[in-house]
Design a protein that fits this description.
The chain is an alpha+beta fold and 304 residues long. Helices cover 37% and strands 24% of the residues. Strands 1, 5, 6, 7, 8 and 9 form a six-stranded mixed sheet that branches. Helix 3 packs across helix 5 and helix 7 crosses helix 9.
Length: 304
């Protein structure tokens, strides 16, 4: 059983500015896209407004192209014959609406060497504005973390992956950040990412004048701004630990035939417990990382 890659949360700005690839060297081994802030990406969890969709295939074999808008730009989605669930899901959606999608990243290199990034979803769900806001807040936090990590590493001489892991970064964060700093050639302009974070916070907190100041580099900021102090808009009182226990109990209850818990029923039950679809995806990733659950296929989740 192969462990599923964690789905990274990132804004369109960071994903679309990514061009470094690490190609798989063995059959069935994953490829990765390294972002300028060091995210080592195989899969992403995106959310935003579905603003366009088009079936460029046929009725018998649809091929969907779509655009999803977040606070920084657009994600580009391709759904084909090998994503039957996502294809059926996007066919039923009416533009415009809020959606969340989890899937693998794909790249295309043009003749002029420009790299274009798209997402090939495994699963697409229609969401409400509150759930979109949850994604905004968590993505702002993770983007902030990558900016602070980059600032820290730039101030270190000859940092190793072990050094960064000892400081609290995950192995994927440590590898990706060092690889990005070594291969992109220069530290990315923090202003673009800070503006995106500011736009997200302004959307979440319309009554507050959020102004991050846009320093030219990371030498003075962002230490003084505590994004983690911003409260979650979801109002969900459950902690992640509590949600893990709830989901594990549901998996046992819904696994009536030994195949695992159907994802659609699991989503309905989780929503009844105040757990959003994005939170369910995040908790599922955590439980899989811990080796407690796995996916027999994309329609089921099973407790080990």
């Amino acid at each position: 059983m192969n462990a599923r890659e964690t789905a990274w949360r990132m804004f369109a700005t960071e994903l679309n500015s990514s061009s470094l690839e690490i190609k798989a060297t063995e059959e069935k081994s994953p490829s990765y896209l390294i972002s300028p802030l060091g995210a080592k990406v195989n899969r992403v969890l995106i959310a935003g407004a579905l603003t366009e969709k088009e079936n460029i295939g046929g009725d018998d074999e649809p091929m969907w192209k779509a655009r999803v808008q977040d606070v920084s730009g657009s994600f580009y989605i391709n759904v084909g014959r090998y994503q039957p669930e996502a294809s059926a899901e996007i066919a039923d959606l009416e533009v415009p609406c809020f959606i969340a999608a989890v899937g693998r990243v794909r790249t295309y290199t043009a003749d002029d060497q420009r790299v274009f990034v798209s997402v090939r979803p495994e699963h697409i769900v229609k969401i409400d504005e509150k759930t979109r806001n949850e994604w905004l807040l968590e993505t702002a936090k993770t983007t902030w973390r990558r900016l602070k990590n980059a600032k820290t590493v730039l101030g270190m001489a000859d940092a190793t992956e072990k050094d960064l892991v000892d400081m609290g970064m995950t192995p994927a964060e440590a590898f990706g950040l060092l690889y990005a700093l070594d291969n992109y050639g220069q530290m990315p302009d923090s202003t673009m990412y800070l503006k995106t974070i500011q736009n997200a916070l302004r959307m979440l907190l319309p009554d507050r004048n959020v102004d991050l100041g846009f320093p030219e580099d990371l030498s003075d900021e962002p230490d003084e701004i505590e994004i983690d102090a911003v409260g979650s808009p979801s109002g969900n009182a459950n902690t992640y630990g509590q949600m893990e226990e709830i989901i594990l109990a549901m998996l046992e209850e819904l696994d009536v035939d030994g195949k695992g818990a159907p994802r659609d029923e699991l989503e309905r039950r989780a929503e009844d417990e105040g757990i959003s679809s994005i939170e369910l995806e995040e908790i599922s990733n955590i439980l899989m990382d811990k080796g407690l659950v796995y996916e027999p296929n994309l329609r089921y989740l099973k407790r080990i």
